[in-house]
Amino acid sequence: MSDEVFRAVARELGDGFPPENVLYPVNARLRASFPDGLTIADIVDVFLDDSAVAVRTALRSRLRQWDAESVETWVGATAAQSDERRTLIYELLGLPAQVHDDLSARFPRDGGPVVIAAQQPWDPWYTAERRREHDFYWRAYKRVLADKNWDDATIGKLDVATTEVVHRLADPTRPEPYQSKGLVVGYVQSGKTANFSGVVAKAIDAGYRLVIVLTGTIEILRSQTQRRLDMELVGRQNISAGVDDDYTNDEDWRAGNFLEHEIDPNKTNEIPAIRRLTTSTFDYKSLLAGLSALHFETVDHSLPLNDPKNLYPSNIRIAVVKKNVSSLKKLVADLKKVPTELDQIPALIIDDEADQASVNTIDPKKMKTEQIERTAINGQIAEILGLLKRAQYIGYTATPFANVFVDPEDSVNVFPSDFIVSLERPGPYMGGADFHDLDDVEDDDKTPANSNEKAYVRDLRSECDEDRAAEQLRALDSFVLTGAIKLFRESKGAKKYRHHTMLVHESVKQAEHDAVADDFKALWKSAGYSQAKSLSRLDKLWAEDFAVVSAARGSELENPGSFAELEEFIGAAYDKISEGTSPVIVVNGAAEKDYKQDSLDFQERGVWKILVGGTKLSRGFTVEGLTITYYTRRTGQADTLMQMGRWFGFRPGYRDLVRLFIGRTVGGPAGAEYDMYKAFEAIVRDEEEFRRELTRFSGVNENGEPWVTPRDVPPMVFQQLPWLKPTARNKMFNAELAYRGMGGESFSFTMQPPRGDGSINARHFAAVGPVLKSLGDSGTFNFVDKDDVVRSFTARYGIVPAPVVLDAVDQFEWATGWNFGPHREALSAAIESGLLEDFAVLLPQPKTREPIEIKGWHEKLPIVNRKRQEREYRTGFTGTAVRERDAIEHIAGSPKKNGGPLAGALHRKTRGALILVFANDPGPRQLKRAQAGPVDSRDFATLFSYALPQAAEPLGRIGFRVKQSGTGAIVDAS
């Protein structure tokens, strides 16, 4: 096909328009060159033609928008991101059914954010037409992202995610005020600021005229957020129109890197200008004589500000305010004096790190003054919401179990009662799952190629000062060596690595930071990086660690062929780190002045330093260029622990170089030891499961009603997690989860009590005895691994009546706070209704371990290794048979899984499927027997996963019941 045809087809895939028959308008455009017209087959050929780059880019973008659309009438009854939606799109485009599969294979669905939302008391307002009519600031922000080398797909996904948020807000032109309150859940260090910047851009385009961004409690964090919004959204013309000159000496301002709008908003009536109420150097101040800055202009004084005639010409006010009582009080006082009627001002409040805005984030052991401060902050936010009846509140957090979920006694005014949006994990992001082996790779089989732990994690297990010094030296060597590798890559054409940092986090106590810093300064001097004596040590580290991992993890950038190629860069890295007064910077202190260190200004200059700190490095502080982390601090608060994960983030061009040195035997109270790596893994697993639950029950049921609303989310979270307070949750939610069923989808039941004397293990094994006796056959099943490669496993299997399985699982005991009841209700109901008659039960046979003898049992059984979780954070085990679940989901009828021919042959409409796994759980004196046998049933745990038949719960169902009679249920349990 010709370029003329490509251009004609691409033009019919315009941004923001619904899918319509593409053939007729294309032929109209090509009438002169193609009088006989193209056929629909020709159009399909263009869509599939790899050389039609512009067409494929446009089609991919439109499909992404159309797949996610939720308010336009053309979507009918189809759900967003569904097969039915994609089929409807193809039909509206006029594409024949026989090409649908080919197109979907070439243009797969991107997915999108998970949304839990209450039904809104208005008709959809944020339509494609509305978005097209007012999009000045969103288009400008998209240009900024493109200039930052964001690709079309990433920008498109941000477009979808931000639209999902904005259309949950109330229409700013709505006659009656309404406050929509929501929560956006991201990942630690994953780009939440980009999301809320996009939301702000779209919101002000839509008509919101007062934007308040609440940042952390430290001025440098507020200043960083202000600068980013100024640079990427407000723009040079709006900044220059003000009286402040806070960027006169800014390197990026002088270099022209701040956004330059295509049209100066200050010189036209068609586009609203932005007036800053705060600057990069000053938090909110009382306006006094300048109070007119909060006076909103109106065209027609007989109409309210929120009337479209007045609203769209009116300028925007934006304030970036840290969560400080004094600053918030000044803002509240000025709002009370504003001449514009407050109930006419459409306002948007963005609360970054939202779990810091509520008193229930406070550890009761902390200082009383901090409690007073936090309570006062929450009170000021509540007062702002009380004054601004049209204010919309959106909290942003990286902690899924943030206290805004669970404790309304202190935060009722900011509870996300309207929506919760769980953002997708960004593609290039390096998060918790990238440092842990969540698919339970056997320890003996782990290599840097298949194990994240082997690739990126280095244990700290020192028992004396000499061992500790050796571990610190290895971490420091890794920092210097990775700096040299970065410089080597620069010499081969890689983009410059402006920042290269190492984080040392050992204590929350400021007095100890200086001592730790002194240790590393002394180590730096004695390590001999400027002398030949260090080269043999670094050569060995390169050969044994970094060369191996970089080769296994397929770095996209060139690596040295030998250490000799690196030698010249060792000295250069040493010099860059040594620049200034010291290679080490201490980052701590309650006073904000402690942050204002020129050497730690990531905006002003490149930073190649070792950072030593505690709490101030664990929330909100982005450590640019972080490559090596040395972490040994213990905490019992899971949200605090997750926020310490500063090693999460984007690592462009050096992902393979990242290393986490983490304490595996950290001392605690009464001489107890804690494995911080396992603690993080427990939280990562809980977070992943929580997100999966949100995904399973997002959207609407067959009646068009939400499966769950935000108020139903806390009872869905497993109560075994100690950082969720059952008493606070009970005060708020008069409901408990009573029923949970998902057809064709497996669930692992690993939440078992601590081992104790092993008697629980013995009872569990006895309970499954009747099930085991039915496994008389053996066969091969398939699964797809994390690299999308089809693999196989052998298992014994048999068909067991469903009542026998129910009787077995009824005898199991569970960890305190975890309730099997909702699952049992679904299991029992399926049996009683005749939708579940039997189970195909599989006992996988490990390839590398022979079955061993079991005391009192008539045959040998396979025993595998599974990690028992630290009781401090989570009881139970890490998983059952993650990779083998494809088989049981296939047997249970899931159309999405392929467990191989045998799984297909075992499928019956009324058949579920179950995997049994026996996991080593020996007492301290039985370790050798656990490997060779004979093994007592007290020394291994019985774990299982099962899937109900797809036909039993094809859409999934979750139900709640009233806890206290007479007070009413929150949701319908049907």
List keywords for this structure.
alpha/beta, six-stranded parallel beta sheet, globular
Topology:
Layout: H1 3-11, H2 23-29, H3 40-48, H4 53-68, H5 83-93, H6 100-106, E1 114-117, H7 128-133, H8 136-147, H9 152-166, E2 181-185, H10 192-206, E3 210-215, H11 219-234, H12 236-240, H13 251-254, E4 274-276, H14 308-311, E5 316-322, H15 325-335, E6 347-352, H16 368-387, E7 391-397, H17 408-411, E8 419-422, E9 429-430, H18 452-456, E10 457-460, H19 465-491, E11 500-505, H20 510-526, H21 533-552, H22 567-578, E12 584-587, E13 608-613, E14 626-631, H23 638-643, E15 649-650, E16 659-663, E17 666-667, E18 673-674, H24 676-696, H25 713-716, H26 726-732, E19 735-741, E20 746-749, H27 759-767, H28 769-772, E21 777-784, E22 790-801, H29 802-809, H30 821-832, E23 838-845, H31 885-891, H32 901-906, E24 911-920, H33 927-932, E25 940-947, E26 957-962
Helix pairs in contact: 1-4, 4-9, 8-10, 9-10, 15-16, 19-21, 19-22
Textual characterization of the structure:
The chain is an alpha/beta fold. It has 33 helices and 26 strands. Strand 17 and strand 18 form a beta hairpin. The longest helix has 27 residues. The C terminus is likely disordered.
